[in-house]
Amino acid sequence: MSGTIGPKQTIQAGINVVDAGGTVNVATGTYVEQVVINKNLTLAGTGNPVIRAPASPTPYTFPEGAGNTWEPVVLAFGGTADGSFIITGAGQVTVNISGTTVDGNSRIPSPTSRRAVGILYRNVLGGVSHCTVQNMGYSASFGNSWGIMAYGTSDATFHGNTVSGYAKGGFVVNGVAANPSLPKPHAVIDGNTVTGPAYDPALVLAPNGIQIGWGATGSVTNNTATHHGSPGTLWGGTGILIQSSPNVLVEGNMAIGNQDYGIATSGYTSYGGSYCNGTIIRNNTVEGNGQGIRIEKMSVDTLVENNTITGNGHGIHVGSAPLTYPIPPVGTVIHNNIVYGNTSSGLSVETDVLPVDATHNWWGDISGPSGVGYGSGDQVTSNVVYEPWHSAGFVSNSYTSSNTMITSPGTVTVSLGTIASAVKTGTGTPTITVGKYSVNPGTGTFTGDIRSYLEVYVPDATGTDQIEIRLYYTDAEIAGLAESTLGLYWWMWSYNYSGGSWVRCSDTGVNTGSNYIWARIRASGTTPDLSYLSGQGFGGGGTPAGGGGGGVPVFPSLYIGIGAALGAGILAYFVSRRLARQ
């Protein structure tokens, strides 16, 4: 049985009479009550009804609540509750809630040791979608208010919600730090907006917009998190925090205007120690935060790739105070990010951290990073491996690189969709990355530039006979050019990195039947050769129709007027400099 609840009725009355598996449809209106669901059920709002916290909601406890007492406005749980409102048991229910506003009425629990939460799931399958949670309340004596939370064996999807007016957390999916043997939830947190209280002086604790912690698992994708900071000095507020949890994906989010940290990972030394393993931070926009991305203590094998990080104090920070937290992060890899316009540094790494692999990033200037770097881009500190760097930015967030670790000899193709590919021949089993630039990675243009630019990265070409690079084109891109003259050009730096020039590859041509320009790069006998594929930029070009002949090489100015007998020696010097520093 399903039913519709009107504004003169209570939602709880409808829930009590509807059969398990049924739907309670809630009409427009304001319902001042606590809603408790302990069976399979769908709660669907029509016209955005408001569920407002009563003056004295019933307090509940449950094993995964870490000994705390909770006062939820909406509670869904599996298991059973006794007469003292203590929830126990391993049972699960499936509950889906949509289309409602949950309003905490800005109330402060009494006593203030209790915790206020908008929607609380314990052992629940299902999710919350297109709801608003607001006004959860906080004061100088109370800082434990939350938006939407999941505990126990919950496996939930939270999508399209708007959460604000909390003191401690917008979305929180937590295990139990003090008892890691208890069940841990999983959640997909996608497409939500969380707005924190910023630097409100009434804050007691540091707020986090979205948190997956203490062994819980899941993903955080396509959300917007803003205005999280703490006026205190011990903890920082964070837009998105992954705390002591494994293999969480953080992708496609906007972490903007958080006074402390945009995105952060951290382990914890208490309760026997808990690491934060395998976090992937990918394709996010991180802008206008105190620190954009912070990789803290006991973070292991964190991957930071393809993010746009700009307008922060520190773009990326790796490490934490060694005297307080003696286990620094390890295994951090930072690749293919756009890092520019950060006021203090693009990347700062503390001295107790092992060198961080931050190769193949764009630092805001073709000359590379400043600080310990040689260039004019954002600063990097010591303990950073930043060479080679990208010499232009990517198509932010829509940028896709194809990275393939080849495990068998022979001919293997690494494809970047319909944009480009690299075909390897030989017995070697290299890792090949093919990426696309959004703008010219060099300076100046070249003959018939079609304005399509690639990067090819092969860190170890041992045993590889040849890599054929293919850049696909459309008829519109080559309009006005003689198709038969198309070829690939490569960007060659001058010896002091003050500039460079585009040079036509020595073995290049076009497949007019399949619409791609190719260049064959071998271990020797080609310019460039395989040893040069350390993030090399390539572009396609040709001769204007009616111009006749093949594409005309554009050589560096240092070659002009130098005899052929010296040319090979100078080229070899350029190549050796490029391999030493890019």
Describe this structure in words.
The model is unreliable at 395-400 and 548-582 (pLDDT under 50). By secondary structure, this protein is mainly β. The radius of gyration is 29 Å and the shape is elongated. The protein contains two helices and 53 strands. It has three domains: 1-167, no CATH class; 225-397, Pectate Lyase C-like (3 Solenoid), CATH 2.160.20.10; 402-580. A hairpin with a 4-residue loop joins strand 51 and strand 52. It has a twelve-stranded parallel sheet with strand order 1-2-5-10-13-16-19-22-25-29-33-36, with helices on one face. Strands 3-6-11-14-17-20-23-26-30-34-37 form an eleven-stranded parallel sheet, with no helix packed on it. Strands 4-7-12-15-18-21-24-27-31-35-38 form an eleven-stranded parallel sheet. Helices cover 4% and strands 42% of the residues.
